[in-house]
Amino acid sequence: MELTANAKINLTLDILRKREDGYHDLQMVMQSVTLADCITVTPAKGPQGDAVADLRFLPTGNRNLAQVAAAAFRAAAGLGGEVDVSIRKRVPVCAGLAGGSADAAAVLRAMNALTGAGLSPARLADIGAQVGSDVPFCVLGGTALAEGRGELLTPLPPLPPCQIVVCKPPFSISTPPLFGRVNVRKIVRRPDTAGVLDALGVGDLPGVARRMYNVFEDVLDRRRAADIAAVKAVLIDCGALGASMSGSGPSVFGLFDREDAAQAAVLRLRDSFRDVFLCAPAGPKV
Ligand code: ATP
Questions:
Q1: Closest to 15 in 3D by CA, of 181, 252, 226
Q2: Whose alpha carbon is nearest atom 10 of ligand 1?
Q3: What is the Cα–Cα distance from 132 to 149, expressed in whole angstroms?
Q4: Is the C-beta atom of 87 inside 6 A of ligand 1?
Q5: Which of 167, 171, 162, 161 is nearest to 267 (CA)?
Q6: Over the chain, what is the mean pLDDT?
Q7: Helix and strand tally (H, E) in the chain?
Q8: How do residues 78-128 score in pLDDT, each as one tens digit?
């Protein structure tokens, strides 16, 4: 079975409070994009399933999130055999684009179909929450408000058609230290989440774009903050309606209503960066 594992971007990312259990309550408007990995799931050749990607540095076997998802499905559904998963990796890794979570979600969908288990999307998303906090969104896809750790999902009206330019600068940002640097009471700048929801409700793309923000941008160290700001500046200079960092970075994206402007941004960014993608919003998986 072949599946598409779509990446996501955060149109907004806000941190509401630190919880007693040490996690943070988040509020994020998430959007699936057409930038995607290609996943093939087949019955395992050996006694144990394997997972192999066309990127040598990714973990294989049961350390790959695709196999973690397969095991979670078998445990929850009580059926399904071992599977081999082959991954054509197109989504940059450790990029804030949920590439690994997207692969895991695709495997959950594949196992559900191959075994005929017929689990509801909500049940599959519940199983996905055990694998990673972005997996439930990746199971459902489309446009959604994600709250809690990211597992409480409310589907939203779709982002109006647009071009999305995604650029991943060549460094990675570790997520736990970023959370460590956030002092919820001292967050000065937040996304206008309510305004984004209203703008989505009336199909107002510029209204969404100008209200986007990611609170992690304010806790980056000075050098990384400058790198992210430079990519945003190129996107805006080329005509993006708005630009923001996705997840815990370092990917930055811009929303465009003109394809020529988006193409121009891609060309300019490719002068300095290898990982630059032109994509579009992707609809829900279910
Ligand atoms: P998020 O946006 O959900 O925080 P991310 O885009 O920052 O995720 P991923 O690309 O999902 O990060 O990868 C995170 C880690 O998971 C990496 O250290 C990678 O080695 C590991 N990993 C395990 N399986 C996979 C997979 N199938 N694809 C990508 N990464 C994987």
A1: 181
A2: 93
A3: 10
A4: yes
A5: 167
A6: 96
A7: 9, 11
A8: 988 899 999 999 999 999 999 999 999 999 999 999 999 999 999 999 999
Six token digits for residue 53 = 């990607």
**CB of 114 closer than 6 angstroms to any ligand 1 atom:** no
Residue pair 121/139 in contact (Cβ under 8 Å)? The answer is: yes
Ligand 1 within 6 A of CB of 99: yes
Q: Which amino acid is it at 39?
A: I
CATH ID of 2-155, from 3.90.226.10, 3.55.50.30, 3.30.230.10, 1.10.10.10: 3.30.230.10
- Claim: this prediction has a pTM higher than 0.90: yes
Of 55, 62, 64, 65, which is best to mutate to test ligand 1, by the most ligand atoms within 8 angstroms of its C-beta?
65
Catalytic positions, written as ranges: 8, 134
Alpha-carbon distance of 106 to 279, in angstroms, equals 19
